[in-house]
Amino acid sequence: MWRTPLRSDHEAVADTLREQIRARARGLGCVIGSGNLDLPGAANWYIPDLAVVPAAAAKGAGTLLPADTLLVVEVTSESNGATDRVVKRKRYAEYGAPLCLLVDRQERSVTVYAEPGRLGYTRADGPHPYGATVHLPEPFDLDLDTSTL
Hey, what domains does the chain have and what are their CATH numbers? Predict the structure, then answer.
């Protein structure tokens, strides 16, 4: 189930990132949305703020695995910041999401996590303060402008 974001400061950040990633995602044959990411064997699932998924995998999918994505994006809120920073990031890595972009609205920073493993991501680029240019690695090879977040 993919949804259209509501307008709020939180969603405005997600929308700004969506616009910056959109052309490259299309070039990779992907769609950008948000929806259920299943965690097999776990009692829960997550809904990232954005997920970049190959169009073929997303077509007709009710739920996807984190490993089906090319990128998951989490934008923190006051109510769920700790979950996004620690729990969801670790679970995305454990279930194979290759890249995770964490936008920490409370800390006003952006971090790119890569190289997922069973215990979490083994590489972190950041945190970078808002205003910095943040590089998304391959397959994106894209610089994000965080000055408008």
Answer: 9-145 (3.90.1570.10)
